[in-house]
Write a structure and sequence with these properties.
mainly beta; Immunoglobulin-like; 9 strands; 42% strand
Length: 142
């Protein structure tokens, strides 16, 4: 007789990116038989958070998603630091952030997750570390 039930279906996926570089993550969503899912009606949320406050346990929001959830703001200048997420009928999910947004993210190791919502069912599909490495060059247009 089983004594445990594990409802955590999320996959561990650590992401390493570069501060000041354009962030682009492509996912191909498939069913258990390997057939691409029509995810055009799905809603996706990705949030990157910092270390938990030792008193409150709350994690500060570093990056959010423009389409849903709480919006993130860079400390000091209150400028947005959010991802854009697009999905289509062929199972493609693309998560992007402009280089100008990534330039506002301090090099560090954060935590993140990605959730999907379809027909009012919310599921965390990926979680892990979101590591931002420091950059050397800074691309600026004038």
């Amino acid at each position: 007789m089983s004594t445990k039930v594990n409802l955590d279906v999320s996959e561990k996926l650590n992401i390493t990116c570069k501060r000041g570089d354009t962030f682009s993550l492509g996912l191909l969503m498939k069913d258990a038989n390997g057939v691409a899912l029509n995810v055009s009606s799905y809603v996706f949320l990705m949030q990157v958070k910092g270390d938990a406050d030792p008193v409150t346990g709350e994690r500060p929001l570093i990056m959010g998603t423009n389409q849903i959830g709480r919006k993130a703001r860079a400390e000091g200048d209150d400028l947005p630091t959010n991802f854009d997420i697009e999905s289509d009928a062929s199972g493609n999910v693309t998560i992007t952030a402009l280089a100008s947004i990534m330039a506002k993210i301090a090099p560090a190791s954060y935590v993140y997750d990605i959730q999907q919502s379809v027909n009012d069912v919310v599921t965390t599909i990926f979680e892990g570390r979101f590591i931002v490495n420091d950059d050397i060059s800074n691309y600026e247009t004038t």
